Amino acid sequence: MTPPLKIAIAGAGGRMGKTLIEAVVQRADVLLSGALEHAASLVLGNSVAANVRISADAGAVLKGCDVLIDFTRPDASLPLIGACAEHGVKMVIGTTGYDEAGKAAIRAAAERTAIVFAANYSVGVNLTFHILDTVARVLNEGYDVEIIEAHHRHKIDAPSGTALRMGEVVANALGRDLRECAVYGREGQTGARNGQTIGFATVRGGDIVGDHTVLFAGEGERVEITHKASGRMTFAAGAVRAAVWLAQRDKGLFDMQDVLGLRHDTV
Ligand SMILES: NC(=O)C1=CN([C@@H]2O[C@H](COP(=O)(O)OP(=O)(O)OC[C@H]3O[C@@H](n4cnc5c(N)ncnc54)[C@H](O)[C@@H]3O)[C@@H](O)[C@H]2O)C=CC1
Ligand SMILES: O=C(O)C1=N[C@H](C(=O)O)C[C@H](O)C1
């Protein structure tokens, strides 16, 4: 019998970390082998499963796992990504908000170990990415694209990783480069809208788990594609599914489109 896949969670005391622990413990084919937090965390030493306490000893946690699932913040995850590459530990990265250097570090690490890196692990959002590619190819002229996202008051990055990925999917489908056509918020005498831009608007408040709308606004009609998450288990279950999928890969960079078999040339 194959031994269960050993999964450790980085950011174990966080909103996603707690949900990920629940998602791992629920499955019979995987084992929670470690739970990691920063050295000043108030939850260090707390028991989260049989024989697993939250620890700040990254070396020991990595030694005991096959896959590390990281939902922390970029400055915390980058040293872990380096350590996983060095020790051949596979990774599922859910953290958002990396700059270009951070993304380059993830690409470099994936030359040494297998990594799934996705801004959103829900099946619904990944299907939405797929649909957006089709919609953008059809509404490719005369439609202004705006992306609106809303999240809870604690979120520290904006726009969300999901909104940015939606922007990339639409920009790619329209033959544009998001780095050149994105407009992040508007204020004052902005002038008329440039039809080649993709606009982003961010809402933060309360306990909103994560809402995303991509609006294609034309003359006489508009199309709105919306996804709303009402709980975090959808992300956590997807991340654990990605960890199990990684068991068959040695190295390389993948995303949730690969895990779900949704990839085609353009997404
Ligand atoms: N890809 C996806 O599907 C999703 C991604 N996210 C992303 O996940 C990240 C975390 O989100 P939340 O759980 O809401 O945040 P959170 O703030 O509740 O949790 C982050 C946790 O990481 C811990 N942490 C900080 N430094 C650490 C270190 N060096 N080692 C270990 N742990 C450390 C913090 O103490 C905290 O407990 C964010 O970047 C968010 O955007 C969130 C939901 C879904
Ligand atoms: O911080 C969150 O909560 C979320 N972050 C991810 C993002 O930035 O896209 C995914 C999800 O929307 C929840």
TrEMBL record:
CDD domains: DHDPR_N. The active site is at H151 (proton donor/acceptor), K155 (proton donor). Pfam families: DapB_C, DapB_N. SUPFAM superfamilies: Glyceraldehyde-3-phosphate dehydrogenase-like, C-terminal domain, NAD(P)-binding Rossmann-fold domains. (S)-2,3,4,5-tetrahydrodipicolinate binds at H152, G161, T162. It catalyses: (S)-2,3,4,5-tetrahydrodipicolinate + NAD(+) + H2O = (2S,4S)-4-hydroxy-2,3,4,5-tetrahydrodipicolinate + NADH + H(+); (S)-2,3,4,5-tetrahydrodipicolinate + NADP(+) + H2O = (2S,4S)-4-hydroxy-2,3,4,5-tetrahydrodipicolinate + NADPH + H(+). Homotetramer. This is 4-hydroxy-tetrahydrodipicolinate reductase. The lineage of its organism: Bacteria, Pseudomonadati, Pseudomonadota, Betaproteobacteria, Neisseriales. The gene is dapB.
